[in-house]
Design a protein that fits this description.
This protein is an alpha/beta fold and about 240 residues long. Helix content is about 15%, strand content about 25%.
Length: about 240
């Protein structure tokens, strides 16, 4: 395994070293360098520190594990692969992601999952262990977002204006959501047994990665949010 010391390197030098590296690589002393692993394929990358914006943008069947926080636009337009964050992430995580998985142990900023989409067998998945900021799932067109609300210190599980413009996909919130106002164009309902079976499948890898017990997570109430087929946002958009 190759080790890259990022202490004195800019993002261009780090990415060039990544391109030359073996299939498995570790970056140490990362501190805000942007665009790391953009478009990366067929590699297993471990990062110690805090990578900058657009970590794993356009990721294509590679794996990234971060022992620290991530900044904005983690997994921007990622196509396939997995990003694992042992901390918090900033705004717009998973922007327009069309495949792959993002697992976050901590919290997410504003606009997580904005413009997330799916096509045929490609269904992106984002799981946030803590709480999410405002505009969660904004303009979501596909894929699945799960927010678990662990260790949120009495904060609401999601900020203001969740699901604004949502016209596809599904969101699971581990809460009864009695204090959350959703737009009229979506439907929020308690999770059914079938929903919980679906959740169990999604949560399996997340629990393994962060050492949670899946039955403990599923013991709390979940709310499922989907577009309202009778009053959809979709009717407000121009057809292609």
């Amino acid at each position: 395994m190759e080790i890259i010391d990022a202490k004195t390197l800019d993002y261009k030098a780090i990415n060039e070293a990544l391109r030359r590296s073996d299939d498995a690589c570790t970056i140490q002393n990362c501190c805000g360098q942007r665009f790391l692993a953009s478009g990366m394929s067929q590699k297993d990358l471990t990062i110690y520190g805090i990578p900058g914006n657009a970590l794993g943008a356009y990721l294509n069947n590679a794996a990234i594990t971060v022992y620290g926080n991530g900044q904005d636009a983690v997994g921007d337009t990622m196509n396939e692969g997995q990003i694992l964050i042992h901390g918090n992430i900033g705004d717009a995580a998973g922007y327009a992601m069309r495949g792959g998985k993002i697992y976050v142990k901590g919290n997410a900023g504003y606009r997580a999952g904005i413009h997330m989409k799916e096509y045929k067998e490609k269904k992106p998945l984002m799981i946030i262990g803590g709480y999410a900021g405002s505009f969660l799932g904004e303009y979501q067109a596909g894929g699945v977002i799960i927010v678990l609300g662990l260790s949120r210190n009495k904060k609401r599980i999601v900020g203001n204006f969740p699901c604004t413009g949502m016209h596809g996909g599904k969101i699971f919130l581990r809460d009864d959501c009695h204090d959350i106002k959703f737009p009229e164009q979506v439907t929020a309902r308690p999770a059914s047994r079938e929903d919980l079976d679906e959740l169990r499948e999604y949560l399996s890898d997340f629990c393994s990665a962060f050492n949670y017990q899946i039955d403990d997570l599923l013991s709390a109430p979940f709310t499922v949010i989907t577009p309202d087929s009778k009053n959809p946002y979709k009717q407000m958009y121009v057809a292609n």
